[in-house]
Every structure is written in structure tokens, then in C-alpha cells.
Amino acid sequence: MSAGMEAGHHPRPLPLPGLSLADEATALGLPCFPCRLDRVPVTANGFKDATRDPDTIRHLFSRSGAAAIGVPTGRASGFNVIDVDVKHGKPGMEWYAAHRHRLPRTRTHRTQNGGLHLLFRLPPGVEIRNDQKARVAPGVDVRGEGGYVIYPPTPGYTVEDDAEPAEMPGWLVEACLRPKSQAVEPAPRRERSKTDSTHGTPYGVQALAGECEAIRRAPFGEQEHTINSAGLKIGSLVAGGELEEEPALAELLAAARSVPSAPGREPWSQRELEVKVRRGFADGQRQPRQAPPRGEPLPQRSLADEPGEEAPPETPDLRVLRLHRRPPPALPLDVFGPWQGWMVDAAEAAAAPVDYVAAPLLAAVSAVIGNARWAQAYSGWEEPPHLWCVSVGDSGGSKSPGADAVISGVLPAIEERMAGDFPNRLREWQAASEIEKARKEQWAQAVRDALNDKSKGAAPPLPPAPDSDLVEPMAPQLVMHDVTHEQVALRLSNGSPKGLLMVRDELAGHLKGMNRYSEAARAFWLESYGGRSYRVDRVKLPVPINVRHLAVAWWGGTQPSRLAEIMGEADDGLLARHVWFWPDPVPFDLPSKAPNMQWAIDAFERLRPLEMGLTSDGHPEPVVVQLADDALPALRDFGREMFERQQDAGGLLNSAFGKARGLALRLSLVLEYLWWAGETGVRAPPTVITRRAFLAAATLVAEYILPMAERVYGDAAASPGDRGAATLARWIAKTRSKEVHVRALQRDVRLPGLNEAKAIHDAARALVDAGWLLLPGGSGAPGRPRVSYPVNPVLWTMLS
Q: What pLDDT sits at residue 389?
């Protein structure tokens, strides 16, 4: 919750005498920026210039035309706004009148046109984007992430209700997210009878009690699925009028909070449980369901349903196909500046999402810049540019083809040019080496002569002083593949001091096998992110390897099925250092044109000659590129936002939020030089990181990288039961099978993770709860009954 929305704090509804508009804006405690009375921002960057800093607010509101207070919606302020519009005869008030009984009391503003702004807290785990296309209903817009509203005490805007912003109801969250063509209409309400309780009908109340008990008793490994399923079913009954929304949701949340954590696993966080309940509940509200006709039994929820029990087919929950995973965020292509067109062309040529081009591009650029340039926020805080990027996708999803333009098309040409004068240096070393060898042979002969001629009593001569500079040069190299950490250390200490790009088509093997060669390997790779000095001791050789700046970039791929395996290690910060790219696949199409590879090679060639500086004793040292002074407030605001969000996050996501500030600083340097390399004309390399570059990096982190991390970490946390259910669901959808025959599936099909009868039964029962399958009937030879789960016929309608 933002500073302006903390409990007990209400932004003042009326202007105080003697206060300027800037003072009023400051007193709100919200990020603000100036607008004209027609709502047009006065500043160049609009809501992106919003700030809480009093001095900055006074400066901004001193500009000509500043007559209204703008407040950004979404994460910046901590609330979204439902804009009920009446201007030009829009029917927003008709929607409000029809739905008012379903809306909780919340903070409400009256607009200058007579409409309403309804303020709601951000729904956990879901991002609502700004939308002015009447997605909710005609005359009802959404002001969310990327938008803003005019805030009282701006003239013409008043506070109708100064309550705290309430939690947005699940049905309204869904209305904000669904396509415009599916604008929500008032849900039909069941007529309540005298026998109904204050919270619902007997049918609804008993169903709620059963689902809450199922949550409390769910065994380890099935808790997440049970919570999702219960939320879906109760949400549908609320939408059908069988239960009141707030009491039903409160009981589900209370049941979920009582769930014990499995031994040896990270404890459930309260926020994590709440997100799961609310997501299922919101999905259920899209599918209104009412009690069966009079005379049919009330619902009975059991953890061990008996075969043969009949129940009306439920609406299948299609989310099981994707493990209830978070949808991928859209890659903000505009942050890549002059590279946008090339990236799109490369993606189309590979029939791949553009994300699979962005991942290796960022990693490769960070490696080519390398230790030649480091980003500095202020004295004492420097970051190397090296990035660890991972493309996630199923086999055949075009991860490698998407990377080919960079990894196979650009980098080999750059490595070839890196060789430079290496052949001459190698020949010079060979000559010097032979001279050194001859000197040692002369000394050895002198020792033998002294020992043989004892009559002179001469002592054997001392060996010649070794030439400390006589180290065999290694050819400059940019890309390395499957190597040990000792080989990487050798390369960094001699030949590639700027750094390296490690490339692995399947990154899971590397992450799981870090300790294969020695226990020091994982520590080495952890340190290789920070660019600090590092020493590798070797048993076989007396001389250790000293690396002055241990920094490597990574690009690799992995499959979703291996995420749980990767994430199973202890959280030592290694995984949170990775930037994940996991888009949805794109259908195959013929490309409109090939990417201009020569343009990309020439751009990389501008980066390649960047050299490291030298210390006073002649050792190579990174050149520091400082963040511009006008970018420091943006860094401060971004850092505070990440800190606030970190407090509500658990596990790996907590670590990711903790590293977001440093990642944004790295990315700002990479983007600054990426833009420069793609420019036309001739300009000296950047010597400062501009505010524009930092804001672009912060946008990429906040709107893409962190939401993508939620998608990856959430998928990795799925239980084996949920994974089995998703595998079985995909097989059903693909084959259009009318039943799941356990023995046939085990003997003939052999799906991944479903090789044993128990695993198949567990997956099938999960799909029964999800509405995909009906409870089995048995038939066949005595002693060996044929167990099959019929597929819910409603499924085919939904899939088609």
C-alpha cells in the first residue's frame, strides 16, 4: 500500500485556505504531477513525472498552465480506478445503478462532468492495465497501470465518500481483464427464500462449509489444487446468487490460512495463499452456477469420493492446461530503441516470439561491453553490465532459432575481428619462450661444469631470474560453451579480461551440475555476477589463477518441465540473478523480410573496441559511467517501490525484488550503449547514463522482468499432482479421448510423470475436481475391474 493509502490516512477532500495547488498536492501524500483543467499533463513525460518530493512538486506546479492535480494509477499510487462516465450521454451511471448492490463501500470521487471515480486497492497477483475502451461496460473505463486520474481538491472534483479504497470484487477484476467483446452484464440473481441464511441459501452455505473443510484437510502435495478448486466452485455459486460474496470469500481465506506447510518445504506465505484463493474465486465468478432443481441432494464435498457417485457435470476449469500459471507480460519493445525493427525481423524469420531474440541480444551486448564499462549510481555503488538471460519454452518452441540471429549470425563475426594482432603476439611469445629456454639450458650447463671442475671450488651459478611477463597469450574469445570454472578463470585472466558470454542450449544441466567437478564451482559462478576479484586454487598446479574482475554473461534455454528441478536448490541468490523470458508460442508464418545481419554486425563492431582503463600500476580496470544527476530521483523512487513490493513477496520472488535495483542499473548501461551502437552517424561512446536510459531500464524490470519472474517461479512451485493433472489435460485436449482408461494409459501411452497407476489416478481425480472428468465406473473381468474416468462432454464445447 502506498504512503497515501495507509490505514487511517485519508487524502483531504477540500482545499485549505491559503494553500497553493502545489501545497495541496504535497499534502495528499501521493505521487503527483501537474495537469491543465482539460486533464492534459503540463510536463513532457506526463504521469511518469509524478513524485512525492515536495521540492520537485513545487517546481513542477510552478509551470504555466498547472491547474489540476494528476495522480498515476496502478503501482505508483496503490490503487486502480473505475471511471463511471456520463459525458456526452455515456451510460456509465446505468451500469453503476445495476451493479451498486455488488460493489463494496470504497473511496469515491465526483468528477467535473458529474461522473464517478471508484478507487480500489490493487488486486494481489494481478496487474490491471489502463484501458479507455469501455472494457467493463459502455461508459465504464479502467484507470490502471499506465494511466492517471485528476484528484481532488482540483476545481470541479469532490470527494463523495472518504472511505479507504476497498478490495476490488473478483467479478470486477475479471471484467477489467476480459476482452471488450465480453463486457460484463449484471449477473442474474436467484430469488432468496425465507429459509435462506443471511449469507446464502442452504445449498450455498453447505457447499461453502464442505469446500472449507476440504481445504483444511487437503494432504501435502494437493493443497494448491484444492484451494484453487474450492475458490472456483464457491465463486461460481456467488455469481449465481447462492452465496453473498464478502462472507464466502472471508471463509475461504480463513480456511486457506489454516493450511499447514509440508515438512522440509518453505512455509506458505499469507499473501501467497490469498492470491490463490482470489484467483480461483474470480474465475468462478465468470461461470455463474445455481442449486440443482428441488429434490436433488445438497452438495457433499469429500476427499475420497466413492466410485459410481453421480453428480451434475461441472463447468471444466481450462486453467489446468497451463498449471494456473501467470500469463506472460508483453515485451516493451520501445525500450530497445533503434533495434526494434531488427528484432521483429529476426523473430519473424525464426518463427519465434520476439522475446527469444531479446534474451540473447541483451546477454551478448552486456558481454561485448564487458568490464570495459561499469555503471555507477554514486560513489561506492558500481555494477558490471553482465546479464544472465534464460529463454524458457517447450521443445520445438523456437528458443534456439530465435537466438540464432545473435549467437550464430553476429557473434562469430565479432570473435573473428577480436583476433586482431594475436598471431603476431603469439609469434613474439614463441621467440621469447625459446630465448628463455636457451638461457635455462645455458644455466644448466654451467651448473654441470661447476660440479665437474671441483678443483676450482666454484659454486654452481644461480638460475636466471624468470621473466614475469612471459605468459603464453591466449586467443581473445567471447563465447564459451560447456567448460569448467577453472577454464573460465584461465580465459578471464589471460585473453578475455573484459568478460565472456556463456552459452548453453539447456541451462538446467549447468545449474544442476555446478558442483560436479568441485565444491568451489557454485561459489565461483555466484561470484561471477559481481565482477569482484577472485582466486581459484588448483591442486595439480602450484600457481593459483587470479582474476581481477570475475564477470561473465549468460544466455541459455530450458523447458518448463525442468523449472521445478532447477528451483529445487537452496535459495542462495543464484536464481534471482537470472532474467527470464517465457512468452507464449506464436503460430508459424512466412517472414516478410530477412533481418539485416550486416547492420547488426556493424553495430556490435562499435561496441567491440571499447577498452578497459588502467590502474596506476598498469593493470586493466573498468571505466566507470555515472548515472546522470537528474536520473537519481527516478532511481530513488524505483528503489523504494521495489522495497515495498519485496515486503509482500516470498521465496525466490523476494530475492528478485531485492536485486531489482542493481539489475535496473545494469540494464540502463546496456541500453545506453545498445542505443548508441544502433545509431546512424558518428558519436563518441556515452560517458553518462541518461535519465531516459534508466527510466527505460526501470520500465523493463517493473513491467516485464519481474512479472515474468512471477510466472517462472509460480510454475516451478506447482505440486507434482498439479503437473500430472496438466499433462493429462493436455493429452485429453490433443487426442479428444472420451475417457481416461488407467491401465491403457499406463501400458500404451506412458505420459511423462504418469507411468504408475497411482500417479494416473491422482491426476484423474484432480481433473474430476476441475470438471474435466466424471467419477469412474468399473467393469471388466472379475478381479481386474476396468477403471476409466469419462470425459465431461461439456469440455468439448469449451475447447471448440
A: 96
